[in-house]
Amino acid sequence: MGDDTEWLKLPTEEKCQHKVWKARLAGYEEAVKLFRRLDDEKSPEFSKYAGQMKKFVTDSNAIAQDKALDAVLAFVENAAVAGRIAPDVVNGCITKVLNSSKQKTKDKGIEIILMFVEIDKPDVVQEELLGGLENKNPKVVTACVQTLTGALRVFGSKVIKIKPCVKVLPKLLEDRDKNVRDETKQLCIELYRWIGAALKPQMAHFKPVLIQELEAEFEKLPGDRPVQTRFMRSQQDLKAKMEEQTRIAGDGIKDEAEGAADAAEEVDPYDLMDAVDLLSQLPKDFYEKIEAKKWQERREALDTLQKLSESPRLEQGDYGNLVRALLKVIAKDSNILLVAIGAKCLAGIAKGLRKKFAPYAVQSVSTILEKFKEKKPAVVQALREAIDAIFPSITFEMIMEDVLASLENKNPSIRAETALFLARCFARCTVSTLPKKQLKVFCNQLLKTVNDTTPEVREASYAALGTAMKVVSEKHILSFLVDVDSIKMQKIQENCEKAVLLNSKGEPRQSGASGDARPKASEPKPVVRPSSAKPATKGSKSSKGPEKKSAPGKSKVAKKGSAVSKEEPIENALSDETVEEKAAAAFPADVLTGLGSSNWKERLAAMEKISEIVKNMSREEILAQVFVRTISKKPGLKDNNFQVLKLKIEFISYLAKNSLFSKRSAEFCLPDLVEKVGDTKNGSVAQEALGYISEATGFDYVGKEVLCLAFENKNPKIQSESLNWLSQSIKEFGFKLNIKQMIENIKKALGATNPAVRTAAISLLGTLYMYIGDSLRVFFEDEKAALLQQIDTEFEKGKGQKPPTPTRGLVAAASNDAGEEEVVDEPEEVNIQDLIPRNDICDKITDDLLMEFSDKAWKVRGEALQKVVAILNEAKFITPNLGELPAAIKQRLADANKILVTTTIGICQTLAKALGPHCKAHIRVIGPGLISCMGDSKTNIRALAVTGLNSWVEHSTLTPLVECEAIQEGLKMENPFLRAELLGWLCEKLPNHKPLPAELRQCIPSVIACLEDRNSDVRKKSQESLVPFMIHTGYDSFAKAASTLKPASKDKIIVILEKARGNLPAKPTKARKVAPAATPVESSRFDELDEENKPPPAASTKKEKSESKPKTAIRGKAKAPVSSKKKEEEDTSAPITVVVSKEQRFKDEKNMKVLKWNFIEIRPEYVDQLKLQMEKNFSKSFMDQLFHADFKCHTKAIQLLIKCLETNSNQVIENMDVILKWLTIRFYDTNPSMLNKALEFLQLLFSTVAEEDYHMHDIEASSFLPYLILKVGDSKDTVRREVRKIFKLIYKSFPASKMFCFFIDGLKSKNSKQRAECLDELGFLIELYGITICQPSPAQALKIIAQQIGDRDNSVRNAALNTIVTAYLILGESTYKYIGTLNDKEQSLLDERIKRSAKNKPSAKIIVDERPKTTPLSQRTMSQPNIHQAGQSFKKSASAATMEKPSVFEVQLEPDSSYGMPNLLQLDVDELYDPVEMPQISAHPSATMKLVDSKDASATIGFVLSQITSSDINMCIQALTQIDEVLKNEERAEIMTNHMDQLLMMLAMQFKLVYSTFMGDPLTNKDDIIKLYKCLLGTLLAALNIPSLAKAASKDILKDVLHSLITMILDNRLEEFEEGPQVIRSVNVTVVTVIEKSDHTNVMSALIRLLQDCVNNETCSNKFLELVMKCLWKMMRLLPDIVNTLNLDHILMDCNSFLLMYPSSRNKGSDLTIRTMNTILHSLAKLKGNKILNHTGLVGENSKVEAHLKKILNSNKTDDFSTNQPTSKPKRLSKSSHDMLAEIFKKVGSKDNTKEGLNELYDFKKKYPDADIEPFLKKSSQFFQTYIERGLKKIEMEREGSSEVSSENTGSSFPHISVSSTGVVDSTVLCPSAYIEKLRKIREGISLGNEQPCQEDNSSINKTLTSADSTDNSEKVVPGTEQLVEGMAPEEDEEKEKECVETCTAEPGNTKASLATDFSNLKMRLARVKKLSKT
User: Fold this and answer.
1) Is 1322:1303 a contact under the CB 8 Å cutoff?
2) What secondary structure letter does DSSP report for 1336?
């Protein structure tokens, strides 16, 4: 029994996977608790279980499965990673859960599926459910339908897509299983609930009985619209909004916009229908028949077309020919019947295509309008249907010209039908789709046709104007109907009432049927927002009497378009009789009598009664005009009793607030009210009444009337109080008055005798100054000096003040019954400058004046300037119409006469003030001229230029100057004055300027150049300007530009830029959120260019909403509206992810699940398909940019792609197929800047792809390359050049042979440039890869190419001839067989080109005894040697040790011929000293020369390097031979710099291949293995011996190389080979060379990482680990010399990574690894001191290294203190000792007395051990210090008679000399044994002497060296290193030293045979031969 319960001890994860179902059950229960307990949705615990979820739902045990479903549900609810497993889990639920016999289990499965929908995976769920409908088990199908129905019911049609569900209905309704059919019917009913009648067209193919049954069920459904009841996680804001609406609805408040919103959500049946391809179904002879002479044939064609056009939805295509044919029938066919049928066909096509009919719409409308001259009703009706069907696809602007022309047509039928057409169009419009500008044009023309002599035309015009009035409201159209008399206006109004407005479906709108002239459906409604304060009712307000004005700022005026726009009531004046009649009906007779009573008390009582009656009326019942005129009857508002008068004025205020108070009503009370403004008792009440009337009728109207009426009255009190009221009201309502009329009255007030009037006028001017600014003073410059002084004083008070925010506006009050808020609408914002009257001076700028501007005489030019000054002074303010004046002024700014320049700059300033905001029209011309004046040598002119430019920029912005590149050009000019002034000016303007366009980045190179300018002022100003520039461009732009500088300048500039970077301001709080890792100071305004288009963060949105809502609804105060649209949260997800893999997309395309990416013109279905493929892997914000209509968004998207490519290339490559498809769409765009950006990205992409060694898939290539080849035929040279560069990069990642096929296909293009470029590329490929590259075969390819020789285009012919000649150079005469027969002309061209190419080829003399008669040698292609051919032997190199034959050099130049070289025989050494005659070598260039000199050497080298990893040893050796030839010459070897990593990677891969494959293969020749090893090692050493190449190796590649080399050292199988030990020694040498020659930072990082991998790898042997540590010890010995060259940041980062990942549970290598790491840190800390802590920036927060270093530094301080405590400072030398020491060092420095000086120095140190000689050493070089140290050590050894000196003695004898001035210890020991070792190697190398003594000597010397190394190491490393070394056995240490740090470089051989195979020996012998030959 114990075994049965053993699983109880297992963790939850293992229980869930246990074989015993009880264990799994327990595991599932624990998992449920775990998942519900975890608070963090991103917890790692969830990730552990993610892969097991499908197994949970498919558990075979029913009991366990039930609990497993609970666990899965808890997981999906709480885990962030649940979305990833959606497809698998849903599929598992469908197949294993929904078919369960237990209803409970099935319900749980359905709930899990619905939960996946809730976590935003509806598409995945719906796809899997629809796939489940194909299941053979009817239970599963039934459950899937049921689940679909349930999901649609709770989530609604916005979440669950309707169209896929509708498509499966017919099949399911015919299923054999009754349950399936029943559930499908329920699905149909649910679909009908959501989409209504849109479903019925899809039911046309159902059985009649079924349709009848379903319709009966449809009728039973309630009429209420369904509401979504369950919401996805991303819809929580919608959920809250709907809950709030439900709550509000429960309170009795109805949201008026709800109906409109619901209507907008209706599904269009058109979207559910399948498109019919009409064009493909047309008969082949259709176009012939439609133009046939017999009308019966034409009708037959049209009848066929009519049937096809009846399809409700048509496939998009090229309908141009078809539409033209139909228009021809409509316009010219003599048979009226055919015209009608043609019109019906056109209507059907337009309805079927909808918006896609737009390309043909304008032409069609023009033709139909012209055809309206027909009088047959049937034809006219058909034409009407056609033109009405066409209108939805176009705009008024597109057809305006044709419509206006038709309204002026001579034929009255055309005029009448055109007007009726306009009326029908207007009925479909809304306020937003019928702009005022277009409406005005149509109204002007319709007003002419209103007076037409034909009644039909007049009636049609009335109908059009009436419909337009109903659409835009009477208020907005009246301004266009000023001259219409009352009779015509009445007719228009009648038509307005009759008009029925239609929605987008052509159905009447809900508000269109009513007679209300105000279109409710087309205008926004006041909406009660959630959580806002309840508005005070009108009853409560009225009971409190008139409202008081609240302080400004408590409520804000609603923004334009944000609230209801109250229509201005238009009211006719009533007759006196009518007024009396309506007043009698409203008030009792005694009340009306009392108003005229002479007794004031009766009048008072009557007014009180009237007020009481009116306050009980509703808004609509109050007759404002009647009541105002009633109380205005004598005595009216001139009542002598102040109490009665107050009641009357308050009554008028009430009417203005609570009725439809019109301007007509205001006319009857304003004159009397203005007279009472100055009243002592009731003046304030009168002013308040004026304010309410302003709210009702508009302040612009009331203010103008008050000002005019006040100055018509001579009472100064009225004038002054009216001015004061006006001043205060302007602050409350905002400035909307006509400034010209105001100024006339203000001037009257300024000239008044009464001081109060003058004071009030000056006060009003002060208020106006806040709005208008300095421009206001211009109007009053003619006033008296004293008055002007007062005005200036008032202006000074307002300087710097901003106008207050308007707090009152035009009120649109809703009815009391509705209980709605009052919402204030502010009229369209008025530009103050537009109110200033301006004069047109264009007529005064005559040609004569412009001629004078360019006259040779400076006096004439000066007079012309003065004339302009006079014109501007007279005009004051001018229009922007200046003609050629700006260009003339620009010329004078560059005048040689400085006086004229000064005058011109003054004119520019005056012109800027006169133009005002219109400056932006001319700043592009004037601005560059003023900038050039900044470079003048005179200070005053530069100052004037700056002032003038400021005045222009104040009225405009810097944007035009940036866009016209004026700033860039100014900075480019090498004028120090110009640069300094311009940069200084920019420093002031840029920081606070709004974001500037991207063109500003073009200034960056110039700014950086200014940093190195010779002028100090320029350098200073440029440094100051860095921060302002970076605010707009970002730091990265500057860093990128600086990276291209020369090294000498780069370092200095980078320091300056970093300093400026630190001064960058933090990003403003309103800016969008950035990723946490982003640095605030690096923010760029370019990042915020689209800030307005992007949603703000959710938090800020909520905050703004809460702040914007006033607590109470105050009458007359503006209320800040809340946008009705939901503000989306910012998309903070990664731009690119890999949710759906590339392989899945390839699989779908192979299985034909998606369209193949192949089109000639872009079709929407391809774009839609691409969107679907990309939206899963790309963020929403990124998708919006990718598929935006604006090219600027495309450019930003490409910039983001480039950024992603730099930061995360793997994800970009994983999505490369869809990115390339998106770029093919962009190739069809015409914007050049976007195209250039796309090509730039492609170059970066394919460069990265080549570096990552990624190979393009065929599907990727086929969907992209054809379209890229299209761009190679672009008309722009730059585009073609960039595309050619991209081709070269693609060759590295896609087979050239396959590329060849695409280029062959490109020859089919009609574009001659494309054909020529393709031929050039074909020639290049043949030249580079040989004739075998031709696909499908050389014969077919060359034949196609030869066909282009006869092309009409000269460039194509030349390219074809060049390509054939290239093939001819390879094939010779056999080329003619391939290309076939050419005509005589083409043959002659080809023959001539071949002859010319043969002449132009440089001939090389080849000295050979016999030459076969074959193709001329000069015809060999340059890159042909790269390809190995059968029978071809290889050229030897340093890497090729031996070949089968004893010959060393052998080159075969032709496949069938060979040229032998003299063999170098193995001779005795003495024979080498005999004179040798050098063989004459062929002058023909070698293969390597051709490789380097070829047009694309990089591609060729890449090809050769790829052959190194070949499994064919001979091919590998051949590739190494060619590489070695390149490496022989350092100059030519530079070409390998960019390929160093690739070379090393290939070598490492081949080492692994040899180790893992060849070494264990008994069939592989052992000699071949040794040869391959030697070639590999030789090439590696040759590359490492070139400094530039060695430094180019990266750390990751070095790690792989070292791993392979160390593995070879430990390979015991090599010892079985005869030359195995020699190979191992060569590997030792190679390891040392790698450590010493490569970049030390990269090597050290590679070793540390390799050590880390060893420690973490259980399979790693201790021997391997020890050798890696030995390599690190070698690096530690080098540290004192290389520490300053190391990138310590990266070293410490790697050390920290090691310390973090080193498993404490393992003590592999007897903890030597961790001690080695501590030693490295100790050494670095000792060498760098406290500065080492400055290099921990890359370590991060979890830093073990930093703590360790601090500990070391603290211990060093303590040790230093304890060590130095007794001795304190070194003893100071006495004067005699100092002189003695100076004399000693003088001797040491002399050539003759050096030895004597060193002996005296040794004696001096013995005598004075405490003496400080460091000052003398510091004065000398490092080499001299080392020399002294060695000399002293040598003397010590000689005197003490010791051959070896231990490290302890050395350290104690010379405590100060061993350390140099820099603190670095030299480790070199000079001893005789070193020379013995060298001698032994030399003897061994030339096979002299006995080998055994040398080996013995070597053994002893090794011991000495080991000891010396240990000594040096103990001096260098920190305390503890001695223990590290002592912890090893001496024999083991010696063996490891021999293995890893052996310093010998020769490879000794044992026999003459080995000598012959050793290339190094051969090289030495040849060197001696060469030396002897010279002597």
Assistant:
1) yes
2) S
What confidence tier does 1880 reach under pLDDT thresholds 50, 70, 90?
Answer: low
pLDDT at 579 over 80: yes
Residue 1307 corresponds to which amino acid?
Answer: L
HSE of 212, CA atoms in CB hemisphere, 13 A: 3
Distances (CA, A) of 725 to 674, 689, 722, 1787: 10, 11, 5, 105
1826 or 912: which carries more pLDDT confidence? 912
- Identity (one letter) of the amino acid at 1513? I
Give yes or no for residue 1164 having a pLDDT over 80: yes
Q: What CA–CA distance (Å, rounded) separates 686 from 639? A: 13
Provide the residue count of the chain. Answer: 1975
CA dist., res. 920 & res. 776, Å (int): 21
Which residue type occupies 1584? L
Tokens of 899: 């006086």
Q: How far apart are CA 1633 and CA 1621, in angstroms?
A: 18
Is it the case that residue 104 has pLDDT exceeding 60?
yes
Q: Taken in order 1493, 1498, 1503, 1509, is the CA torsion positive or negative?
A: positive
How many Cα atoms are found within 13 Å in the side-chain-facing hemisphere of 1464? 20
For residue range 1656-1693, list pLDDT tens digits in order. Answer: 777 788 888 888 888 988 888 888 888 888 888 888 88
Rounded to 5°, the CA angle 1917-1921-1922 comes to 115
- Predicted TM-score (pTM) of the model is 0.34
DSSP 8-state symbol, 545: -
The dihedral through the CA atoms of 1612, 1617, 1619, 1623 has a sign that is negative
Provide the β-strand partners of residue 839: 878
Residue 823: strand, helix, or coil: strand
Tokens of 1421: 């292609």
CA distance 186 to 115: 22
Six-digit token string for 1890: 């006995």
Which two structure tokens, joined as six digits, stand for 1026? 């860095």
What 3-state class would DSSP assign to 1739? coil
Per-residue pLDDT, averaged over 1270-1277, amounts to 87
Q: Which has the closest alpha carbon to 1830: 1791, 1860, 1806?
A: 1860
CA 1640 to CA 1679: how far, in whole Å? 9
Instruction: Tell how far CA 1233 is from the center of its chain.
Output: 15
> SS3 of 1456, please?
coil
Q: Would you put residue 1917 in left (φ > 0), alpha (ψ -120 to 50) or beta?
A: beta
**Rounded CA gap, 90 and 113, in Å?**
6
**DSSP-derived secondary structure letter, 596:** T
- The Cα-based distances of 370 to 413, 639, 695 in angstroms read 10, 68, 50
Kindly state the average pLDDT of the residues 799-824.
Answer: 60
Neighbours of 663 (CB within 10 A): 18
**Under 8 Å between Cβ of 63 and 105:** no
Measured distance CA(368)–CA(355) in Å, rounded:
19
The rounded distance, in Å, linking the Cα atoms of 912 and 953 is 9
Q: Which of 1079-1093, 1711-1725, 1775-1789 has the weakest average pLDDT?
A: 1079-1093
Both structure tokens of 737:
């008055």
Cβ neighbours, 10 Å, residue 855? 13
Which range among 260-269, 844-853, 1182-1191 shows the weakest confidence by mean pLDDT? 260-269
Q: What is the mean pLDDT of the chain?
A: 75
pLDDT in tens, 1288-1297: 889 888 888 8
Residue 1061 backbone dihedrals phi, psi, to 5 degrees: -60, -35
Other CB atoms within a 10 A radius of the CB of residue 1724 amount to 24
Q: In angstroms, rounded to a whole number, what is the distance separating the alpha carbons of residues 1173 and 1178? A: 9
> Helices (DSSP H) in 333-376: which residue ranges?
336-353, 358-371
List helix spans (H) across 157-294.
162-167, 169-173, 178-195, 208-220, 236-250, 257-264, 269-272, 278-281, 286-289
| 1249 close to 1293: Cβ distance less than 8 angstroms | yes
